[in-house]
Amino acid sequence: MELQLALDLVNIPEAIKLVREIEKSIDVVEIGTPVIINEGLRAVKEMKEAFPNLTVLADLKIMDAGGYEVMKASEAGADIITVLGATDDATIIGAVEEAKKHGTKILVDMINVKDIKKRTYEIDALGVDYICVHTGYDLQAVGENSFEQLQIIKRIVKNAKTAVAGGIKLKTLPEVIQAEPDLVIVGGGITGQEDKKDVAAQMQRLVKQGLVSQG
Ligand SMILES: O=C([C@H](O)CO)[C@H](O)[C@H](O)COP(=O)(O)O
Question: How far is Cα 198 from Cα 187, in angstroms, rounded to an integer?
């Protein structure tokens, strides 16, 4: 099980400064969608240059032009790129084919997918690397989370790894870990805390303990 830090509400220097502080406690750093909207793929490039040994995820949330956008993000240095599960299979297939050429990975974000079971079966057959259940900011604001959805996709996937994102905090992390995802994605649960370094270290410890208890 791995821990991904999602950086959404920062600029590039702030992002690099924070990662420098907590690098040892994270496995993957995500350049969030708002950062890419503000700063472009330059944010991915500068993060990868600053931390060549860290896995960098570009949260492009691709909805169309899968091959082209994966090519651009891969060239910028991304190791993992996100595509939306709500899009058509052709976009996901294009993204997977392009990612293979660059040795990069595809994480499919199931945000706002209505029939999670059916779509998980379909997407798991397309050769993607991760399927991620995700409650976005707007539904977090009305009290939703993806913990039940995580259990559903865990029962279905045979090929992809599983991931979970959306409002995960230190307090709710043990419940998430119990469902045994491969990747736990945390943004505000770290970046919004007073002592980010300590919270990230505690989260990493729990994630790795979860891994040990899985055997
Ligand atoms: O993907 C995200 C969101 O849609 C904004 O781009 C976040 O990175 C993801 O939700 C994780 O952040 P938190 O919900 O703050 O943990």
Answer: 15
